[in-house]
């Protein structure tokens, strides 16, 4: 963490999650604690995951992945060494995992084991409360258009269509839209 400026909680939380606390086959037979895909030379298991000569190599490769892939490089400039929530969501948005629950699961592990205590937090640091995403709805009225609704809520037609799984911009009176 001190050398690479990635929160210790993230490094350990991701490793615990991806390796099932070191008990997964890829952790045991390939020394892969981060679920990194790639070639391996293992004769013990048939896998699409990369093998490492040591566990330490797996950790170093994870850090290297974060530092060299453009999707993750921005995290180093945007987030502190102790903002594990933002790091987890940023890694997920960068495409590290396909599951939409991945960041929440890693954050849950960090909280459960209090891994955030290992991060470089300033003295007397108080963790900000978690933001709760509030989903707002709009009920379509006579004469409403998607464009007007988008303008009213400072969004785009495309975004509204995507959020509401709309194939057309035609609206029905009484229709409930996620804003």
In CATH terms, what is the fold-level topology of the largest domain? Answer: Lysozyme
Q: pLDDT average, as an integer?
A: 91
SS summary, helix count: 8
Number of domains: 2
Percent of residues in helices comes to: 40-55%
**How are helices and strands ordered from N to C?**
HHHHHHEHHE
CATH level-1 class of the largest domain:
Mainly Alpha
Identify the quaternary structure here. single chain
The CATH architecture of the largest domain would be Orthogonal Bundle
Separation, N- and C-terminal Cα atoms: 39 Å
* Number of separate strands: 2
Structural class: mainly alpha
Strand content: under 5%
Low-confidence stretches: none
> Which strands sit side by side, in order, in the main sheet?
1-2
SSE blueprint:
Blueprint: H1 8-19, H2 25-30, H3 55-68, H4 70-78, H5 84-93, H6 102-112, E1 137-139, H7 146-152, H8 157-163, E2 176-178
Antiparallel strand pairs: 1-2
Task: Give a written overview of the molecule.
By secondary structure, this protein is mainly alpha-helical. It has 2 domains: 8-118, Lysozyme, CATH 1.10.530.10; 137-178, Roll (Membrane-bound Lytic Murein Transglycosylase D, Chain A). Helices cover 42% and strands 3% of the residues. It has helices at residues 8-19, 25-30, 55-68, 70-78, 84-93, 102-112, 146-152, 157-163; strands at residues 137-139, 176-178. A two-stranded antiparallel ribbon has the order 1-2. It starts with 7 loop residues before the first helix and ends with a strand.
